[in-house]
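Input sequence (356 aa), recorded before submission:
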Amino acid sequence: MSSNVIKDKDMATAMDRLKLMPEFVDKYVNHLLSNGGSPSTVLGYLIDYEIFFSWLMAEGISDASTTKDITIDELEKLHVDEVTSYRLYLQHYRGNKSKTRGRKLSSLKSLFHYLSQIAEDENLYPILKRNVMAKIDIGTTNTKPDINKLRSKLLLEDEINEFIDFVRSGYRQKIENNKQALYSYEQNSLRDAAIISFILGSGLRVSEVVNCNLDDLNLKDQITTIIGKGQNDEGESVGVLFSPQAKDDLERYLEIREAVYNPEKNEKAVFLAIQNGESRGNRMSRRAMQAIVIKYAKAFGKTTTIHKLRQSFATEYNRHNGIHKTKNQLRHKKFETTEIYALVSDKEMIDAINRV
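Predicted structure, token format:
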């Protein structure tokens, strides 16, 4: 087969794959081709982006239901430790060797560099304001620091209950001399404990907690109904179990929800926040939830995030229940996505690796 025929075939395949990509990837592909990029290179990049975007959705880091729906805002909010998790996923569950992992990360670095340094929006500002991939050294292939770094961001074993107790009452000691912070804590501590306990007791994605309505909760049976994402339930209502501890924290919060947050009668959101200058509570935003988790985690002594709460649940749940039940609880499509928690939760395996 001649080189021209191969190029034409790769170009046709790349254009088909490009239809499944977000608009910002389309811009980058045009940039590559206009600067002499080969169809084979473009096709390879698109395959790499499809793997990465699919992983973001499976992990609940992105709310998108298709790769085309991935947003710039979601890329801007990525953390270094999430890229670390992706690197581990490539190594342990896709079986990618060091060179292949480096190429896949290099593809991402090229896209992020273009979006943050070359591409402009209508106001002549960079499309991507924050480039997490600029912090990633693709030459680092030692898995021991990666695994240990990921573990250090999670709440493991007794830390889960300790953290929830800290949010319920322990945080007060940290702010007792700050009247404004103390007032906010007294008003919101039951809500905040319910949010954190809910995630740590169910493994729900942050978007699912934000979108949770009163009618979705069945406290008696400890089930919440969500719109399915993962496995074969895309777009369908599915029930997710949550722990007795989460039930208790939810009940305490719901007892004071109306009195404290004064919502409109038609406000169905479970978790509410009162904006500055407002008198009534409205559905709490994803960003606000992320902020409170970071606040409490920092005071607790952990540099964790709201997504790490889901991973903490998954790691601990897998330790007690095994990978099959963990996959079902997290609603993952593939075992490969779930298996990372088996690795992280196996302390004996980690210790053995570290002794090598």
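Checked by second reader. Residues 140-145, 348-356 have pLDDT under 50 and may be disordered.
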